[in-house]
Amino acid sequence: MRPMFTSFRDRIFSKVQHKACAANIISLSLGTAIGWLSPFLPLLISTDSPLDQGPVTDVQATWIASLLCIGAFGGTLLFGWSAEKFGRKASLLATAVPLICFWGCVAFGTTVEVLYVARLLAGLGAAGVFLLVPMYITEIAEDRIRGTLGSFFILFLNIGTLVSFVMGSYLSYHMTAYILFTLPIVFLVLFLQFPETPQYLIRRNRVRDAESSLKYLRGYTSTPDHLEMLRSEMDGLLVQVSGEKDSTEQNSISLADFAPPSARKALLIGLVLVSLNQLSGCFALINYTAQIFADAGSDLDPNMAAIVVGAIQIIGSYGSTIIVDRCPRKHLYIVSSFFAAIGLFAMGTHGYLKSQHVDVSAINWIPVASLSFVIFIASVGLLPLTFVILSEILPPKVRGLGGSICTAFLWMISFLVVKYFPVMVELIGLHGCMWVFSAVCLSAGLFNAIFIPETRGRSIEQIIHAMENNIKS
């Protein structure tokens, strides 16, 4: 009997895994929109610019890079409200619309102002994807596989980034836009058949719909064993939601819902986590990958170096999906932060020696190797676990609003980092920026060690209990 039970559990994992992959097609699409900047920014500032007005200025280039974050800041508030008002599914479907419009602007726009609008639209879509994909996956996944499925988000995001790096190197500016225009449309078609999350339906007193959703997600049939498993899981969800306020109050979430210590602490930890995620510099490095390698004096072609980094990033992200539910989250996050700090420090040291006119021709491999290592190791732990942990530590009642607040804060920090990264390079040099990012990564590891409880394999109730009682292990 036990082997049959285990086999069915494995089939459940496979079924939910396939749904998580389909849901993450929108993450793949967002990754292509984010990665578009690296191969095409050098083209936009060159004399071969596809825009009617010719090359964009350096100031315009920084706005093209950073306006995505402004769009995302506003989009976070919109999609946070939408997730509670219309549900996770409808809101996630809506994220495809601004991404379709982004590629339309890139394909047919001929002025820098249209690119500004395009990046704002990409940011709007990014806000919804960053907020809703982890939320949706958390609410459909079993506790034992929640981390693995949650880490798919960053994996698909990174695959999309690499797709843009490759296509930008080998295809034309307009052809790339025409092809990638189809990805969010594919997501719309596939995701339409997916159900709303059981947790959201129960909070709206739609228990029968929640039961149907759970049957679809798990593949339960009408056999006695399956019905018993369905009742057991439904009972657990009902108990979880019963700890919240009655349905009339659930529809109106306010700051008063953050009064419980566990909710307050989770929100503060979330704000710090997303800040460290962006101040680690990884998002800025991805946006300016090709330019960074050119400025660092690497012997490798900048676009080819960006492709190498993108491929390594995917390997790291895939590694995360394999080990995230096998290793303690804390250990994985701390170790990846520590080694990312070492890689950034090495890259900064290379840049400093070069700025002092030291002959570094024998070690010109260091920029590519260091940045590749940093992106790899950060993709294993520091980057994906930020969103996995955030979706796990926020209590269900405030997950939508709390996630919105944290995601909006993330994009505000991201805007400052991306917009002013070139300015900081001018002020303290590329090496100085790498050293600052290195210090932030060290701080991230220390923060996790001191303040964040272990969440691997724990139910939401157990995580909340750990938050309330300062249990770290």
From TrEMBL:
Record flagged with keyword Transmembrane: yes
Matching InterPro entries: MFS_dom, MFS_ERD6/Tret1-like, MFS_sugar_transport-like, MFS_trans_sf, MFS_Trehalose_Transporter
Subcellular location: Cell membrane
Domain of life the protein comes from: Eukaryota
Record domain Major facilitator superfamily (MFS) profile: where: 24-456
UniProt entry keywords in alphabetical sequence: Cell membrane, Membrane, Sugar transport, Transmembrane, Transmembrane helix, Transport
Keyword Transmembrane (UniProt): yes
GO molecular function terms attached to this record: sugar transmembrane transporter activity
Positions of transmembrane segments: 21-41, 61-80, 92-110, 116-137, 149-171, 177-194, 266-286, 306-324, 331-353, 365-389, 401-421, 427-452
Membrane topology according to the record: Multi-pass membrane protein
Any one Gene Ontology cellular component term annotated for this protein: plasma membrane
Name of protein: Major facilitator superfamily (MFS) profile domain-containing protein
Naturally occurring in which organism (per UniProt): Anopheles melas
Biological classification of the source: Eukaryota, Metazoa, Ecdysozoa, Arthropoda, Hexapoda
